[in-house]
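Hello again, I could really use a second opinion on something today. I've been staring at a protein lately and its backbone has me curious. Please have a think about how the structure follows from the sequence. I owe you a coffee for this, so here goes:
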Amino acid sequence: MSKKIKIGITHGDINGVGYEVILKSFSNPQMFDLCIPILYGSPKVAAYQRKTLDISTTFSIINNAGEAEERKFSVLNCVDDDILVEFSRPDRKAGKSALMALEKAVEDYKAGLIDVIVTGPINKNTIHSDDFNFPGHTEFFEEKLGEGKKSLMILMNGDFRMALTTTHMPLKEVPNSITKELIQEKLTVFEETLKNDFGILKPRIAVFSLNPHAGDDGLLGSEEQEVIIPALKEKADEGMLCYGPYAADGFMGSGNFTHFDGVLAMYHDQGLAPFKALSMSEGVNFTAGLPVVRTSPAHGTAYDIAGKGDANEDSFRQAIYAAIDIYRNRSMNEKLVSGSIDNED
């Protein structure tokens, strides 16, 4: 397991804080002890942002991922040369450059040139096009690299892991989308990733209710009685350690989340609002359930501070660490299952 992992990093929206947190993360030479980083983006943009933000990180320009060397931060150009940085400004050209980086990273991952992918923050509006008709990164990677498997969005910080049953959809569509089958699908992926990617033999999973006060026995909604409880009972009968449904406010306020290996929320803000309140600075977004290991920082483009040099790189650095740890855990698990592990590992 001493092999240095090749990490493909996509630059995201060039008008946000992506380049800042990426360059700051690799200003620490110790990062090169862990991995070989390859930034899919623009050397021109990297040089401009490094100078503008006074970041010490040096980089080498490469023509393909195979040229990346140890102890060097490599930048692979995959965008139009005329791209211009306009901090804090949503721009279609910036969205196109974000997509070009993603597509090149996917291509190189399929070719075996990189081991994992860490993505910089994108603007979901400016990247949206006929070529990127997805609500976000999660759905993009499910289609491009999922090989037919279903993804699960997990926000995590250490042992605190918050997964989502539904992700990027309008709130009014959530109730009709919550089905017994969907909950059980997400629980299955969650349990498998906790075992294979985090080494937890018998994970304990808490599940949120959809309605306030867990529906109050049907007074505030019927989804708990009709959908969520039956879904949990069937999985529990199969041997899964899943519990709930818990009212989200009391569960988080009492600190009960610390007693579980993971929490499954019903919709985006139900899970991410408490998670980011507690773990915004070091939180990591992990796309679980797919063959590819993909992580990202828990924050977005942060246009409000872009270009000011104030962005905190901790979340991005944690995304790098998480990708490395998950890749190694998954590789070790595969060897254990196949019986191919030896003393050198």
Q: What stands out?
A: The chain has two domains: 1-149+290-345, 150-285. The mean pLDDT is 95.
